[in-house]
Amino acid sequence: MAILEASNMVVDIPGRAAGQPFTARILPGQRWGVLGPNGAGKSTLLHTLAGLRPPRSGQVLLDGECLTQLRRRQLAQKLAVVFQERQDSFPATVQETVLIGRHPFLSPWQRESGSDLRLANQAMDALSLRLLSDRLVSTLSGGERQRVAIATALTQQPAIWLADEPTNHLDLHHQVAVMELLHRQAEQGAAVFMCLHDLNLAARWCDHLLLLYPDGELCFGPADTMLVPEALERLYDQKLSVGQINGAPVFVPG
Ligand SMILES: Nc1ncnc2c1ncn2[C@@H]1O[C@H](COP(=O)(O)OP(=O)(O)OP(=O)(O)O)[C@@H](O)[C@H]1O
């Protein structure tokens, strides 16, 4: 288990004058969703929390240590990032790619062990990729590549998941499968922080929500306190109608 903490963190969005400082602890077992319109800064926020870009001010801490003090390898032993888009130009099979999730735990030139291979196979099974295991990733469809990215992160066995649109390119069945997988990861003690465009996936699967506005304003809290139609309408500049299905709110454009 690990705790990721933002302390007075202002995300550095090019050209944006200011941003509201973000201070929060992302705790084991929590499932955070970041919502906001295109260009609001969701990916930049996620990359800043991953230590891939410096914040404009403030800091990000992992188990009390500033990310800048940690080596990438130490970070990768606890934290996995699923990117929104990726270049899969390197010619590698699905299995070879999924095994990359074990690299933070291997010394340079060390071969993957049987247990590494077992973890990769389990992750491929969880994402229904076994039949594709010998295929070159470059030959896969968008949704298949997305599942490979999630299987790679799963093989990393992260305490913290930072996932940018984890359901990108996925059909309905695989969207639900991935959200269930992330839910189970949280039940087992991982912290999950993800950017989502689908309000209904966020309403159903997240227990904390962060609303990010294009001017850098943000607000966050337990999901049931954030799913206020007026706030979401202002967030997306879109009228919404709200219903209830199985006790969960469902939003459709009004
Ligand atoms: N290198 C850069 N140079 C200039 N502007 C940038 C750069 N990187 C990001 N931006 C801008 O920063 C803003 C935030 O981008 P970001 O990708 O974080 O938004 P987002 O909320 O994830 O958007 P989307 O929902 O479209 O994925 C955007 O307006 C983007 O154009």
From TrEMBL:
Coiled-coil zones: none
InterPro entries the UniProt entry points to: AAA+_ATPase, ABC_transporter-like_ATP-bd, ABC_transporter-like_CS, P-loop_NTPase
Entry-linked Pfam families: ABC_tran
Protein name: ABC transporter ATP-binding protein
CDD domains hit by this protein: ABC_Iron-Siderophores_B12_Hemin
Domain called ABC transporter: residue spans: 4-239
Keywords assigned: ATP-binding, Nucleotide-binding, Translocase, Transport
GO terms of molecular function: ATP binding
Job of this protein: Part of the ABC transporter complex HmuTUV involved in hemin import. Responsible for energy coupling to the transport system.
